[in-house]
Each structure stands twice: as C-alpha cells, then as structure tokens.
Amino acid sequence: MGIMDPKTGTGPAESGKALSGLLQAKEITLIYGEPGAGKTSLSLELALRVCLQGYKVLYVYTDGLFPLPRLERMRRSVRIPSRCYSLLRVLHASSFEELESFIYRLENGAYAEYPLVVLDTFTGPYRSFKVSNRQEIIIQNKKLNQLLAILKGYVMPVEAHAILTSRLKTPSPTDEDLSEEPIASTVMTYWSDNVLSISKSDLPLQRKLWISKLHGCEVNIEVKAYVAGGRVEEADR
What we know:
Blueprint lengths: L26 E7 L5 H14 L4 E5 L6 H10 L10 E5 L3 H12 L8 E5 L3 H4 L6 H25 L2 E6 L18 H7 L2 E7 L5 E9 L2 E12 L2 E4 L3
Parallel strand pairs: 1-5, 1-6, 2-3, 2-4, 4-5
Antiparallel strand pairs: 6-7, 7-8, 8-9
Helix pairs in contact: 1-2, 3-5
C-alpha cells in the first residue's frame, strides 16, 4: 500500500479516476509540461491531499518565492483544514548546487520522516547551466543520473514517494518535437515509475493530461482536465 489507499478512492489523487492510485510507495512520479500548464498546481494539490491523511510532506521549490497564496486558495477550495500546514515543510533551492546538497542530505537520512518529497521544478536549476559543447551536456546528464539514482534509493527502503516536475526542452531549429519532451528526457523517464505530461489547449481553462508510464509500465492514457480554483481536475469522460 502506498501513501494513499487506492481501495477507498480517497487521497491525493481524488481529483480524477485516471490519477487514482498514482502515488504508490517506492516510486517516483514525473510531471512535465510548458510554463503555466499546471505542474505546480497539480503537485500542490497532491501534497495537500497527503497532508490531509496525516502524513508529512517535504516540498522543495526552485522557482523563486513559494506560491503560498495559490496553496491557500487551493486549500480553501477543497476544504482542507489549515492544521494540515503543520505537516508541510517548504525548502528553497535556488541553484543546482543547493538542489544537489539537498539530495545528499536526503541520502544521509536527514528527512527520513517525510513519506512524500516534491521537487518543483527538479530541472529548473539544472537548466541554468551554460554549456558550450556536447561533452559538458554528457557530464551534466551523468550528474543528474547520479542524483536520481540517490532519490530512487531513498524512496525504496522507507516506502516513500517522490514527485518531480520538469520543464520542456528548448525547441531545436531542426527538430520541433524536442519541445514536447522534458529536459534530460532519457534520464528523467528512466528513473521515473510514473510519467505524466500536462499541456494547455485552445480553451484557457482546459488541460490535457497524458500518462505514458504507470507503475513502471508503458501506457497511453489521455485525460481531459480543467483548471478550477487553482486546481487541475479531471473532466468527466
């Protein structure tokens, strides 16, 4: 059993049937998409739902000031009591070195009491690196691979779960399809047990969710969703 009870249908993935049971113990979930698509909103809601069950959540934010007002609107929207905030700890990482330091502390047992760890965005500091040749990209990907291996080693023995958010690759002039993949896609998807993309549609409040990997197995699940009260909710099929 994971950090939610899939048999009851309640828990962090309560917003939709396709997401039900997504957060299982010993797994890593990757959520990627374009800016403003809803990666952080979905991550915040999952974090709140886990806190509602009485579990501690560690949320590492790398994009500047943590969006507390958005979290508060979301909490009120789903009527989660404010006492759940006592179970949520927020850390900031403004550079890749700080993110790397956090992963090493995680490996050394500094945060063993948190069954859910969210890194939002995990590839934000990584993207800030300036590279001038392919060899530097290889070196960076090796470092990213090492950190993800450590993170996987953390969630396995303590039966925890990790959520990673990622931005998209910068489009290439010769290959526009690259814009639809997360940064360092091969490394990120290899270590992730669940892979979920979220994208905007022609209508402002509509979103499309695509689950390409679920509990380690390749799948092809498309879900229509919409944004309401700062939350990403699955639409009725």
